[in-house]
């Protein structure tokens, strides 16, 4: 069992099993040592108490994964203490994967068997053969989404491959089910070939009511999504693009209310013109932002430059109206908003000091943001990250369960721009003006109003734009 996290990917929670020689050691001292090494003891379970020794499980939270090694080293040097083992609670939770398939009916006898399976199932097959739309009423297609990745842009970890991508895709599937009742299945493909990915997704599509593309690197993700939208009759949604864009815009609607600036008058900088950055920029332009600058590894994207990637050429033509040149610090001079979907640690305090008064900073790279909130908390008006351990978590999890709930319920053929804008407005509207605060610009993932309001507004937008193929009865 892994006990540590070599990449230093932030906080961690471990269980230390200790044998304590009671004659030589008292437990209070152990607790002091753990605390002094940066550990936060959140539970102590007694496993065994004997005359001469006791065994305890100590659950410890650390803010930096590297602290675990420091704590275990220190403990092992204390006479009278034996470290029996260390278990990482996150790894324990992943043992055997996080989801399973559960039948909706139980097979008790031969009669049941012949109905769920052959021979009677054949009549159901023929009903679908005669009218393929029956697949929506007679199979899991009605409520099931494929979460498909090639493992090339997993969180901010990059190209870690399809096997290593599975825990994220399983997590997305859990969230689909728990938050919106959507059955979702993780599918990680062992290919990076655009045509092969498109062909494979098309081939598996009969089983699904929608396709959620996840963590596929740019620029390939753009073509894959575009082609699948054209060639399939079920919604195809690249979550890292559109889910992120929807939630970012929702957060910005509320952050701008706090600083009292209209969107048409702000200058915004998006850092990381990949999947998320392009889609965020599109939704901000659609929402009326005029001065938007994109920054990537080449610096500020400027119209007329020839970039290695045609997506960046097209991006530059639609943004940076004043043709500002240079790097991130040049782009941020006088900017009202920073949106980071790039990589850890790129934003510096000096950059933020150069921004306009009441700056808004959304540092959304995962798992480590462009800047940690503690570094600039005193100089920003509103700060958000993509993480659940800080206030204002701007994460696509606020969008993808609800938007697919809506799309499946009205059997939308696509998820269009109007539905995305409606989703963003719905998420923002969960926080009423009396509750709005610099630490509360987006609702909690667990706020049940998120899916409820999002579903309602998105279904209405789908009906209005004539992409709904079924009108749920409450809308008839
Ligand atoms: N909070 C959220 O909901 C989400 C966060 N993200 C995070 O955003 C980041 C990007 O995700 P994707 O757009 O899917 O990846 P991507 O790989 O499509 O795009 C990343 C972009 O950042 C650029 N970049 C990398 N290093 C840079 C640097 N030093 N300076 C300027 N640009 C740099 C890359 O060139 C690329 O264009 C990741 O960390 C990901 O975890 C992505 C989606 C959702
Ligand atoms: C949240 C998410 O989808 C990502 O970081 O890739
Ligand atoms: Mg993602």
UniProtKB/TrEMBL annotation:
UniProt cross-references to InterPro entries, sorted A to Z: Aminoacid_DH-like_N_sf, Malate_Decarboxylase, Malic_N_dom, Malic_N_dom_sf, Malic_NAD-bd, Malic_NAD-bd_bact_type, Malic_OxRdtase, NAD(P)-bd_dom_sf
A Pfam match: malic
Cofactor: Mg(2+); Mn(2+)
Residues that, per the record, bind (S)-malate: 366, 395
Active-site residues per Swiss-Prot or TrEMBL entry: 117 (proton donor), 172 (proton acceptor)
Keyword flag Oxidoreductase: yes
Every Malic enzyme NAD-binding domain range: 241-463
Keywords, alphabetical: Metal-binding, Oxidoreductase
The family this protein is said to belong to: Belongs to the malic enzymes family.
Name of the protein: NAD-dependent malic enzyme
Species of provenance: Cohnella endophytica
Lineage, top ranks: Bacteria, Bacillati, Bacillota, Bacilli, Bacillales
